[in-house]
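In keeping with the milestone schedule agreed at the kick-off meeting, the structural modelling team has produced records for the first pair of proteins. Each record is given below as a sequence line and a structure-token line. The laboratory manager (R.T.) confirmed that both were archived under the project's standard naming scheme.
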Amino acid sequence: MQALLSSLTALTRAIDVANEHIGRVASWLALLMVLLQFVVVVMRYIFGFGYIAMQEGIIYLHATLFLVGAGYTLLHGGHVRVDIFYREAPPRWRALIDLLGVILFLMPVCVVIGWASWPYLEQSWSVFESSAETSGIPAIYALKSMILVFVVLIALQGLSLALHAVLTLAGRERRHDRTAEAA
């Protein structure tokens, strides 16, 4: 039993570290997006011309930032939660709420999103879907692939959250405060 709990602890640590690094790298997309938006505005309103690919680039950066950063947000407890019961609950109750939330809500939603998006992505990849604009970014299929990246990262972080809850319920972790643990 101790070996299993140690393995679960190592797995949660690995998932948390991976999403931490991915989130920190993805956060730089926000700066890139702001800089690109600034350049687009200056070019359009001061110099009177623009590039569609740059405008689409803002959309690509924005979508990628949110989809790839979702696991990081879940790691740090930044997702939407009904806090009526959770905030004042003791650690074991928080762990139970997290475990049930992952099993009943998060994982089923991940499965549905992955399942529903697969044909959509498959069709996009089959034709290497590109922008409708001739000077746009010819990689809509890559942008749509971020949906699956989102599903994988959020499901992995959900697994980690559930395992943290199990470890808390088993007495292996003393407290169950996701924002304090991840910080």
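The second protein of the pair:
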Amino acid sequence: MNFSRRNFIRSASVLAAMTMNEMQSMAAAMEVRTNGNTVADNDDAFWDKVRVMFPLSKDLTYLNNGTFGPSPYPVIEAVKEGMMENDMNGQYGNWDVTVSKIAKFVGARDEEIALTHNVTDGINIGCWGIPLKRGDEVIITTHEHSGNAMPWMNRQKQHGIVVKTYTPASTAAETLTRINDLISKKTRAIGTPHIPCTQGQILPIKEICTLARDKNMFSIIDGAHGPGMIPLDLHDIGCDTYASCSHKWMLGPKGTGFLYVRKDFQDTLSPLTVGAGSDNGKWDLMATPVVTGDYVGNAHRYYAGTQSNGLYAGVVAAIDFIEMIGAENIYKRLKHLGKYTQDSLLAFGDKIELLTPTEERSRGPVNGFRIRGTDFQKFFGMCSQKKIRIRGVNENGLNSLRVSTHIYNNKQEIDKLMSVVKEAIG
């Protein structure tokens, strides 16, 4: 998308309706276009201009991107324009543009991308679509979001599979060892997250998928926190499926997601639900007996029916926004803020229990921690009173805290959080 006046205005009347923040955002867009150049991760002047492009309330310190990422103005405007085009002209379809954009963004082919509403949709397709029988084993972590835990536990209840768990270790090598030690002759799949939602550890996903392939197992990956945080090449990772969303690190519209299904895996993975678009059009209800049609020869078999033109126009705009700044620039900035958060927490010594590894390859912009002697819910309440948004983590009884930063954040906001940590400790 061309980030110029036409992305913000369609007429003089729209210009008149623009807020001052939107006008400032339009000006900032001209200044943060990098044209492929490198931006320093500590160039605060540049990243302050990026912040202007978000409608975040100035009295809110938002450190919870791991739940969802606020969309910048160009994405919001693209959603509005897409809906207006739909309702003015009766436009229908046009989702192939979004599929192609996503495929290029994550290192896949167009025919390997299915549009979904969220990560949970994609995980369920992977979970229920692989051929498993009673007694077959699936490996997941003890740090799962309910969106990845519940589908596997539900299939355990319905079909009698066995769910086995491992706890991610402080190093990538030890994590791989723990997974390998769980594998038996009955293990058929690894359903692990790329980055657990609880503490943001970047797992050695390529090695995990290689291990699965070498052991003749399926790799069904929860990729909620991958795209937009880490530059991806799903072909290089080598997974069978990768479920993700657009509303976290991609900064796209809420209610949008996608599922990658490796092309030569599509005849193995059965669709969960089907409808218009899932078939090849060669079916005949007048025949006796009824002739059943076949699936379409791409990942469209995994999604069907009407999609939102406006929302998926917003996904395209979100990818354009990331590419305007540069995915590598964003990744380095996120790592920079993540390390600053880690270092700030570690400065409190034994008063803090850091749950996220400090190993370079395993850390990112998400940090999980506990404050010794302070209930996590009490601290969450202290932050809320000061209009600091973080996340309490009660999954699997972890009872911890999570802070997740994106490109709209700065060190001053992290320092503000640390002042509350100091208050809790003191």
